[in-house]
Amino acid sequence: MVKLGQSSFRRILLSRILLLSVPVLLVGEYVTYRKARSTLLETARQNLTESAVRKADTIEQWAKSLKSNLIGASESSMLQSVDPKDYQKFIAQLGQRLPAQVDCLQLTNLKTNQVIASTCGQQPIQSLPAKFWPPVQQQQTLLDDKSVYISLSLPPQRQGTANDQKMALGAEDFPEAGKEGSDSQASLVLSAPVYIRRGNTLQLSYALSLQSALPVQTSAPKGSLAGYTVAIDQDGTILAHPNVNRVGRNIDQEADADRLKSIVRRAIAGGTAFLHLFSFERNGVELLAGYAAIPSPSTTQENSKWIILAVSRLDYALSGLEEIQQVLFNLIVGLVAASIIATLYLSRDLARPVEKLRDYAMKVDTEASQTVPQDFQIREFNQLSEALNSMVQRLRAWAKELEVATKEAQVANQLKNEFLGNISHELRTPLNGIIGFIQIVRDGYCDDRDEEMEFLQRAHDSSMQLLNIINDILDIAKIESGTFSMILEVVDITQVLEDAIDLQATQIEEKGLKLSLPEPHDPIIVHADPEKLKQVFLNILSNAVKFTESGSISISVRLESRTNSASFNNGSGESTTGPSGQSDWVVVTIKDTGIGIDPEHQQKLFQPFVMADGSTTRRFGGNGLGLAISRRIMESMIGSITLHSAGVNQGTTVMISLPVNQQSSFYFHSPDLVTEKGNSKS
Fold first, then answer.
1. Which residues contact residue 434 at a Cβ distance below 8 angstroms, ignoring those fewer than 6 apart?
2. Which pLDDT band, with edges at 50, 70 and 90, does 167 fall under?
3. Across the strands, what pairs with 528?
């Protein structure tokens, strides 16, 4: 017997509702989609039919305008009075005044059949008839449309594009669709007689001819319902088409010839409608074509027609259908979601107790503490709730212990990685220098004794640098372990500062920095360890020199009075505060014009092994211990050290403060120095 998989009540109820509702929704969506498609298709058909009528009117008006302009130009009095040698200039000026559709304008001598003036070269644009116009006019009479000789000029056939080649609707598929003129579409060539007065008669002397390509739209972008233009004469010759290789062909050569012939017949009969085409562009592309007919501009025969088509691809005409599909999809998704919500609402009273306990069990390890669900109508659920609550309490207690241990381990591991990454570079650099210099001296590569001493001195300097790094590590280790000791003495802080400045003077001079020293000052007595205090000054001065490429370092000393919240003992039983709770402090300010520090990183600099960023470490070196040691030393001497920078490349200011005191020295360990309220202990 097959054992069926378990399922929840809500899932079963949801599946049943969806099995009924989803098919209904899909059928409704399909019906709506078909209705929208038929509406868009009908709209496209109507627009293409109207577009074909407008295009036909445009071409008809274009032909009439050409005739009118040509007749007016041939009867111009200017042409009668211009000297024959100035005909070329006159024709050029006339060509600029005529409409832009005129591609060529020529004046031909009918006696010699030679072009005497032209805007497009000396090649005749058409062969003129021998006896189309009367040779003499007895009196000035106005010319009419019948006096204009019209012929149709087709562009030369191009090699290449056949019916089965790619022919799509956009400009990207018709690389020559943007061309206009006599070489891309069929053109009308119109000629009118020019009579020159000789005595009392007007004699036929010249013919004024113009050529103009059909004004057709050769592209139709996606979404456009105007379509591109195709012109066909009643004999089936294609006169205009976006693909210039089809111009001059007969529709009998087209794969969809039967439908095209049907359009020609209906249009000649006076119909304006639309028809589907399937192979007029390329196989597999369905087109919509609206059509209309106009009298043929190239002949005076009454029954001669031109058929003008407005053609658009079916998928272009239905481009708005994609948005409708998206709306329908969103609608069905919303209805399915609504069905799911309704199902959940109906079934909540039946599955609520189990789901509450399940939700509590799933969220108990990710959310804040909450009360376990209770007071169910079923006794077993209440017992399960009590057992679950007891188990969760035990797990939470274990989780807190584990979380604390994990965080401590992560912090320790992070500090270890940072320490190893920083200190390995700082130790390796001087150590490599020592090894290299000693190896050069040992292998006898030095030229003389002075060079040996120079390499040995460099090895000595590197070893001292290495020793200073190790001393910093030992100092911070002693501070962290509480075994760091100092010998406090009554010292002149100005003297200690001068000693530190003297040790950094060489580096300051080598970098060409300007050093601004404090004005001479009376001795300022503080209670401090002179060596440790000098170490603080050296750390700050070293950083100022290291991080200042150019500019200056300013050092100042001032006294200020501070109000203390509580007095502190100096180690010999005398308080440093006066009766009013005021105490005198000496503040040493060291200001540089160096690289500065981002305000977000300033507080982190007093943590061990921390620098502003990795690029600072790589560029300037350092192990990130100097400021941390300096702060611990100053705090142990009941002083303070603060750092401020306006931002990157805006310099850094460090202030070192100590209370003024005049007591004798004594030795103490840092753990026994300060009480909870700030008072020192001996």
1. 459, 462, 463, 466
2. very low
3. 489
